[in-house]
Amino acid sequence: MLTLSILGFLAERPMHAYELRRRISDLIGHNRPVSDGALYPAIKRLRQAGHLERQAEPGDSAPPRQVLRLTPAGRTELLRRLGNPKESEITDGASFFTLLAFLSQMPDPEQQAVVLRRRLEFLTAPGSFFSRSGTPVRIKDEEDRYRRGMLLMARVSQRAERAWLEETLGELLGADAPIEHRP
User: Fold this and answer.
1) What pTM does this model have?
2) What is the DSSP letter of 175?
3) Eight-state DSSP code of residue 138
């Protein structure tokens, strides 16, 4: 998701690596800080692949600073990653939210809808954090109060996300046809 974040933020505008690290850290939260040891090798790989370029720009009463810019190949790579996310990028909440943060970079609403529909399908499939003999545990059947709390919070969050996905899909594709019947 670091690569997607780098490409996504640089698609919005060029910036130097320090600002890019801060923006990525703001996106993914304080629980997963982005270190220089992860960011700079990722930037180097993207530059070597031709997805980024670095240019010196004059600094304000300081030495020139290196600004990173997305190349046309980088934009193509960003759109490829957004349009064809891995299954784990759909099923893992943090990964999906990173993907969602840049989905507006895809110019075609139909392509955006394909990604959102995949997430909606995942959320509507039966599942639970806990199971007994392969059967998902229902909230009312969970004896441990903290696990019951986890299940309850997950249910509420999932309902809110599903409602948003359905509303957004309706806006993207038109509200006339049911979401599950749209191409």
Assistant:
1) 0.83
2) S
3) P
